[in-house]
Target: Replication restart protein PriA
Amino acid sequence: MTRDYFAEGELVGVLTTEPLGRALDYKAPEGGCWLGAFVEVPLGPRKVLGVVWGPGRGDWDSAKVRAVGRVLDVAPMREELRAFLEKAGAYTLTPLPAMLRLATRAPGLSDPPSMRKVYRLGAGAPDRLTDARRRVMATLEEYGGLAFTLKELSEMAGVTSSVVKGLAAHGAVEEADTPRDAPYLPLDPDRPGKELTADQAVAARVLRDAVRSGSYGTTLLKGVTGSGKTEVYLEAVADCLKAGRQALVLLPEIALTSEFLTRVEQRFGAKPAEWHSGVTMTERRRCWRMLGQGAAQLVVGARSALFLPFRDLGLIVVDEEHDTSYKQEDGVLYNARDMAVLRASINSAQVVLASATPSLESWANAEAGKYARLNLGARFGQAVLPRMQAIDMRLEDLPGNAWISPTLQGEVKQRLDRGEQSLLFLNRRGYAPVTICRACGHQVGCDNCDARMVEHRFQKRLMCHQCGETRPMPQSCPACKAEGKLAPVGPGVERLAEEAAKLFPEARIAVLSSDLFGSARALKAQIEEIAQGGTDIIIGTQLVAKGHNFPRLTLVGVIDADLGLQGSDLRAAERTFQLMRQVSGRAGRADKPGVSLMQTFQPEHPVIRAILSGDEEGFWQAEAAERQQAGMPPYGRMAGIIVSGPDAAAAFDLGTYLARSDAPLRALGATVYGPAPAPIARIRGRHRVRLLVKAPKGVALQPALSEWVGGVKLKGGLRLAVDIDPQSF
Ligand code: ADP
Ligand code: ZN
Model:
């Protein structure tokens, strides 16, 4: 039994984010402290943030043990979150201090809260009531005792701020100072939602019963794009809130949040808390603190929201659960989908994994009965699924340096004539993927990475998509110095836009690519403009494949359906299948039927045929059988080891040493492959070597891995990272 409270002077173990491996002993401060308390402790000459993790070990000279500096004014970290950090750390082989860092990413944790002016109902009476004044008073009365900022109140009442100030002058409205970390407006789960279709109602009922059970469970909510998955899981959110518990909705892309916030506001009467990189520091701090106090009911966020200090988390929704961006690829390597399941199991919470094209992992878990499974078969209302067809590029008459086939051109033209939108999809940022010198054949590459420099013509620069380094477009070849000989090879979205502008000079064209927007707000504005019909042709990378609703979009043209099928990655088929079905799902979401045309040189390829036929079960079965036979995830376990360093030979030597000393893994029946150059053999000047470990399912892989790599001495700038369940293999 661990104790919850430590009296002054008792030994406590404090975990800090410093890389020390374990909790250090301190004496509880004056007034004592709770288990889980956030504290400031002296460490050498510094003061660092820590959490009381348990009783002290007492293995230090007691005269040297220092006292906790002070206890911070935030809710102690709950036992569930501490257990989650420990288990997630053990799973991903991440030391606890690094896990703690994920959970303490709130700015200004140790600062006292700053104040701001708010307005609430006052005791006085206004001298006269104008319409505007009446609206302000009605708004305040509607929300009872709540206080609002000037901006909030005037927006809600639809008045200028001077109206509020006028009322304040008479005392009808009272001005007060409150800490910035104010509770969020309450969401009202009792407001009626949309009337659900029969299918939706069945699915919603199942989810609601699951949430009401108050126990752990995971449900795969599969439904074609536009079938109403969001409407359905919002019902589960409603029941979670009714039970007085908190809910978290994870989205793969910040650009999707604003549409989602609006939907939540329509459904529950107020906006939820937000947690992602586009949120201001003040708001993040508020979100973090209010969650701990139970003064925020719903968070919509990015994967890092999993580490927030919820007081009572009852439901986690992972929307577009197949999305690869849920995998964090640097620092702590974790998959938010899997971590959501772990956190929910510790919190006795429910998980909903929503997708039109689930990951093979989730599909297999549903098949095996580990996850419940719900299916929404049809699109809501009049919307029907797009017709999918291949354009056989071997039969199309296209000049060099052109990529929009005559067949596709004809279809776009029809859409223009009818005032409908077309989306041309190409998963390649920039102008051209390769820049080559026509005099010497040199391909311009990055100095620091094993990657080509990609021309971004809008910015007149070359960019490395690995390290982000950019430089001005050179006039002469970096190798042979020939002037004016550098030429683009192949298409990127910018070049495609150029081609479309020539073919359709009258069309309004927008390019949607993550590098073209300086801010989340700019991207949001562009997406809203498209949704409102301000664009005829959208040219986009996979940014557009994700859940946006463009009601006038009736044609999707995939420029290169074969793109993802090249290369040796075993997940290529799954990825291509998901991406093609997702992007096609953008077409025909409202009352007009949609078409999705895929340009391909290999229409007979099994993956292309599966995409066209829409036989998803057949595709998954075949893919599953192949993985099963190869002992690959989800039917076997994998881990990747990346050794990197400034010196290629040293990295290879360490890789070879590891491969030879694989006894702890062989004992499990696991196999080590490699070392081989990593898929990208050099990034930011560091050479990268990869080993892959394949193990049977059900073995204790992590302990064996730590035994294997744990004792390795890293010299000469070498680094070693373990990637459990790697994305590519
Ligand atoms: P998904 O999440 O599966 O892509 P959404 O929940 O976004 O689907 O639904 C697609 C569109 O259909 C949305 O605009 C949504 O508001 C609408 N919709 C879905 N179900 C209903 C319903 N029962 N009543 C009214 N509108 C609905
Ligand atoms: Zn680079």
Notes: The two ends are 43 Å apart (CA to CA). The pocket of adenosine-5'-diphosphate (ligand 1) is lined by residues 194-197, 200, 223, 225-231, 380, 549 (CB under 6 Å). Residues 409 and 728 are 35 Å apart (CA to CA). DSSP finds 20 helices and 31 strands in the chain.
